[in-house]
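Read as chain and fold; for instance:
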Amino acid sequence: MSFRNFLARKDIEISLRRYGIDAMAAMAQGLFCSLLIGTIIDTIGTQLEISFLTQPMVSMRGSTYTVGGLAAAMSGPAMAVAIGHALRCPPAVLFSLVTVGFSSNALGGAGGPLAVFFVAIVAAEAGKLVSKETKIDLLVTPLVTIGVGLALSAWWAPALGSAALKLGTLVMWATELHPFGMGIVVSVVVGMILTLPISSAAICAALGLTGLAGGAAVAGCCAQMVGFAVMSFPENRWSGLVSQGIGTSMLQMGNIVKNPCIWIAPTLASAITGPIATCVFGLEMNGPAIASGMGTCGLVGQIGVYTGWVKEMSEGTRAAITAFDWMGLVLVCFVLPAILAPLINCVLRRMGLVHDGDMTLQD
């Protein structure tokens, strides 16, 4: 049997789609269901003064954890298991990834998500290679998966985490230094990544993209989602408005392949709203970095900005949430994309670049 046939039998597919799209999207879901949900729970508990959500439930090695804190603490295992699920791992491999995710995220530090991404993929594929190949599979498979994962965590995770943190810090520093130019760049790039079959949320989380750069990222994602939702309303009506506006603009990817010109309007809108977010309103994402790449998906981007405001107030760096803050959030995330994208699209229609039905979603 050839090695290629062996890999096919083990369902190991070395491809950009399997690793760069499926695994990364799954990692974002794992991060969403742990760190982001935990942050939201903590914010709800604090704002509504729900004692059950704010009081410590567990104390370990001098650290206390609330309900939300426990969810956030499991982000590493959640990401690794999500990646394993996307790679179609057998149960013994999938369950072993809990340890791999915890170790790689812990050793990766602030750039832990990137470390989890690479380490979990290699550990999962190594586990799949030996899965059910011996009579003592219950011992061999977990030992190989965890052994490879822990070894790579110790070897790779600190360097990967440090590299991700430095790159994210560089982007955030550049945005602080040149808010107009970088506001355009970050908004356009992250917004386009959101519409592509790649996880913008996972990338923002891996880079730890917060602050002004995070605000620009939110603006770009919202421009794509709200822009496409409103532009395509004549074709897709209310279901399309909801599925794209609070779902994902990725639904338009098939139509973009047919006519790339439909992508011009939301992309130009993001180039406008990005610097407005950074230069006019000083919109910052100081909540979880994953929220920077979520846009209006489930209103996670906006909830992330709000949790950042709450965090700043608790730390004493913000006196209050002002009307100007709310106006900036609403204008950048909803109003401006809903106005700019359709207006630009009207120009493109008159130029003959976009036609009726170009943005119709398939059932």
Notes: The chain is about 75% helix and 0% strand.
